[in-house]
Amino acid sequence: MKKALILFSALLLVVVFGCASGGNKEVASGTETGRDDRGFEKNPPTAAEISYQSAEQFLAAGNYDEAISHFRTATTLKPNYFEAWSELGNTLTKVKDFPGGIAAYEKALAIAPDNNSLISSIAYNYLYLENYDKAEEYYQKLVDKDSLSYEGNVHLGFIYQKKNDLTRAIMAYEKALAAQPNDATTIGTLAGLYEKSGNDEKKMEYLKMAIVAAPDNYKYKTQLGSAYMKKKDYVSALPVFEDLVKNYPDEPAYHQNLGLILSQIPDRKGEAPVELEKALALKGDDPYICGILALVQNELGQYQKAVAAVKRGLDTKQGQEPMLYYQWGVALSKLEQFDEAISMFEKVVQAKDMQWSDAARKQVDRQVALKKRAEAKKQQEEE
To answer: What residues pair up with 33 in beta bridges, in sequence order?
Structure first.
């Protein structure tokens, strides 16, 4: 009874469409319609085609529920209706019914087994469902047809990444890159994978490639500059962060890193405080940046400025006390205020900080010796 009603409705639609349409028209199946001398269509659309056309109209209007319903009707009336199954899969995928989308695509794939678009769509839905084994199976079909399939390889790389199989992920992404050599995203992903695998040389190589492929992408430049800093190759890091500061002058981290880099290059050390002060102005007083600024100012012989930077850092009450008190002690020592310097270094010793406490302990002994030497010199001068 229900099927009869569907067919009856479809026939009514045939009459309506037939009387209302003007001129020749191509339906989904490709059948050309025309009119005889009485005005009736010679090849009227089938009930399945009318359901398909209605579904397309609902789809264009954003009424997905009705579109799905009419696509299903079309496939019921014509089980081998390739276009209807494909569009049903697309629409179900659009509304995030991924299992339903897979089922519809599978029906279409049974009709057109070599259709790469369908294979890719099924794989995508499985990927969205985090069913990586099934997604791999379908993307592998694309690669089996074309070993350099970009879509197949780039998604296989992603899947192997998820499975923590770095070796296979790198191999897949390399093949994807062979198909699209300027794909900055894939190049950047490979750089990250080589870093995880411990191959810093390849990581640097791919970061440089990524910058060439996407010269305006700050992320790759930041990663390259940071990689140079990690290697303590400050000369190579310098132009990278100079460029970043030029293009992103309001980013405090870039000024901070540029300041750190400049502090490590002897003939540019004097420029470091300016960049560190810019970082502080943009970020607000930060105890770590204040500590680095104090360290640089001590190295430049600007001891009073170093003490001022230390106090700014301590006033934040946000940590880094061992580094800050250590730099305060260094400044006081240079100002020959040895007792005060000893007091600062003892604070650092008491903090039991892994980075600063051992050095501070040695500084306490050194300050005692310096104090004795200064007293002996003064006594000699008085005699």
So the answer is: 25
Rounded to the nearest 10 degrees, what angle do helices 184-196 and 200-213 cross at?
Answer: 170
Nearest to 361 by CA among 372, 346, 377: 346
Q: Where are the domains of the chain?
A: 47-113, 130-211, 216-284, 307-373
Taking alpha carbons only, the member of 196, 249, 197, 188 closest to residue 221 is 188
Alpha-carbon torsion, ordered 92, 98, 101, 105, to 10 deg: 150
Q: Decide yes or no: CATH 3.40.710.10 for domain 216-284.
A: no
130-211 and 216-284 in the same fold:
yes
Structure tokens given for 281: 């102005």
Q: Considering the domain 47-113 in this protein, what is its CATH number? A: 1.25.40.10
Please tell me the CATH code under which domain 130-211 is placed.
1.25.40.10
pTM (predicted TM-score)? 0.71
For 320-343, the DSSP string reads: -HHHHHHHHHHHHHHTT-HHHHHH
In which element (H, E) is residue 279 found? helix 272-283
Contact present, 30 and 61 (Cβ < 8 Å)? no
Residue that is written with structure tokens 């067919």 in the block = 7
Residue 144 carries which side chain, given as an amino acid letter?
D
Contacts of 253 (CB under 8 A, 6+ apart): 279
21 secondary structure, DSSP code? -
Residue by residue, pLDDT tens for the chain (383 residues) are 333 334 334 433 333 333 333 333 333 344 445 665 655 556 788 999 999 999 999 999 999 999 999 999 999 999 999 999 999 999 999 999 999 999 999 999 999 999 999 999 999 999 999 999 999 999 999 999 999 999 999 999 999 999 999 999 999 999 999 999 999 999 999 999 999 999 989 999 999 999 999 988 899 999 999 999 998 999 999 999 999 999 999 999 999 999 999 999 999 999 999 999 999 999 988 999 999 999 999 999 999 999 999 999 999 888 889 999 999 999 999 998 988 989 999 999 999 889 999 998 998 889 888 888 887 777 777 66
Strand partners, 32: 26
Please tell me the number of Cα atoms within 13 Å of 101 on its side-chain side.
Answer: 21
How many angstroms separate the most distant Cα atoms in the chain?
Answer: 135
